Amino acid sequence: MTEAQNAATYRRWFDEGCSQGNVELADELYSAEYVTHALGPQFAPTLEGLKMFIRALREGLPDLRCPMEEVVAEGERVAGRFSLRGTHTGTLLGIPATGQPVNAGVMVIARFDERGKWVEDWASWDQLGMLQQLGVIPAPAAA
Asked: Are 78 and 10 in contact (CB under 8 A)?
């Protein structure tokens, strides 16, 4: 597959899988051998673990959106920067609903195979900022 096709798959996942909640789309876009280096210990680093993680996010943030801000593709890798946005109206990873809006920055680097299937990824996201926005962890005092 081409870099442009891999980038289109990447965008499609965050648009349809994350923002629209079509978690089963992962079965089409991801390799059965998929491994993630991004989820916490409560989720297996597999395709099923990824789907469980997205469902858990959407349980706590039913209006979850993942608008893409930038995507770069080179060779078998695609990297992107986007926001994880929503309103905390359900239980989010054990945190009872607060009604607070969330806007956390996320970066994901994905590796694709020759068939254009997503096979591996690494992610970094602003978990501390999200917890501060929810009021679970106090934000630093203004100087």
From this structure: yes
Per-residue confidence (pLDDT) for residue 138, from 0 to 100:
86
Q: What are the backbone dihedrals phi and psi of residue 124, each rounded to the nearest 5 degrees, phi first?
A: -140, 130
Model confidence, pTM:
0.91
Q: Each residue of 25-42: pLDDT tens digit?
A: 999 999 999 999 988 889
Residue given tokens 């648009």 in the structure block: 15
- Enumerate residues 6+ apart whose C-beta is below 8 A from 143: none
Do 25 and 13 touch, CB atoms closer than 8 A? yes
28, 12 in Cβ contact below 8 A?
Answer: no
Confirm if 110 and 82 have CB atoms less than 8 A apart. Answer: no
The per-residue pLDDT for 141 is 78
Q: What CA–CA distance (Å, rounded) separates 79 from 120?
A: 12
